[in-house]
Amino acid sequence: MNARKKSEVGSDTLTAETISPFRDVRQQYFKSPVAVAALCVLLAIVIIAITAPLISPQDPYDLRVIDIKDGRLKPGSPKLSKLATLSLKISISGLKQVGVSKASVTPTDRSGDTSSDAVQIILEPHAGNPYQWSVKVSPTANGHLDPLQTVNLERLPKGSKLSVGKKDKFRNIWRLSPKDAQELILTLPKTSTDVGRFRVVMSGGTQKKLMTYWLGTDDQGRDMLSGIFYGLRISLSVALSSVVIALTIGTILGLCAAYYGGRTDTLIMRLVDLQLSFPTILIALILLAILGKGVFNVMLALVIVQWALYARTARGVALTERRKEYVESAQCLGLSTPRVILAHILPNCLPSLIVIATLEVAGAISLEATLSFL
């Protein structure tokens, strides 16, 4: 009877499942809906930061795709393709010839992103006056400039007048609507020259929707949503790197101060008290002013202003752990000092340090953003 009971107890003991500490923590973690939701948000932010070049509608650092004319657009505004442009230099000769009813018109220069046959320009003397010309501008059938959006007459001889349109207050430019450009009267001044020259600048065509500015644009024409995605990469990398480095330095110094005590403890903790007596933002600004601009300098400034907090926390926890029996047992076994500190005291200090490091990541992001603006 006793043998059966022992065998049953032994079988129960053998079949009992051993749960690792990691599995126990995981089970406890996933029991909290708030913790799971926070983890999902964190993973989404990290994934967006990593895949920013792939999912961003626009590269905010590529000046080739940024147009300052798209600045300060409201959320939901579309980005349209550029209009086709054409600039023709017109030369009218024979102004001084009496009785000439028709002078020659020659496009002597062309510039723009379409061919000169995209538009038809007809110039004829008006009422037999060599200084008055009827001008007709219309797009051709190739469709590059159809429909016309803007028509400007630039560099007209001083004193010239148009029957329609509006002259710019500061520059020698007459702005016409496509309807006005279909037929207008150009009056040239009676100067001593025999040739009248000016330039016709046109834009038109069908615009295509390239993208949508879901969050609008800034004053430089950069997509705000893309700026957030790309900004996540820099903010997270700088914050995480600075926190890890500051945590490492502060933890080592705090553990050494608690374990060795005496002058070592006094020296390290007085440095900690001195640094914590000044505002964090003030120290960071002074360091950045000395070191200069740059991502590495911002990271270095964050490390210098953060290590003291980890050093004081690690020292406080390590002082408590140092008096416990397992540390004395390790010392009696003849273990080296680095092994006692790193293998026995440090693991029991990590929970408090991890909590503080998690909170300091948000503070590092805020401080990094402040330093970037300033």
From TrEMBL:
Keyword entries, A-Z: Cell membrane, Membrane, Transmembrane, Transmembrane helix, Transport
InterPro entries, sorted: BP-dependent_transpt_permease (IPR050366), MetI-like (IPR000515), MetI-like_sf (IPR035906), OppC_N (IPR025966)
Subcellular localization: Cell membrane
Keyword Transport: yes
Segments passing through the bilayer: 34-55, 234-261, 281-305
An individual GO BP term: transmembrane transport
Name used for this protein in its record: ABC transmembrane type-1 domain-containing protein
Species annotation: marine metagenome
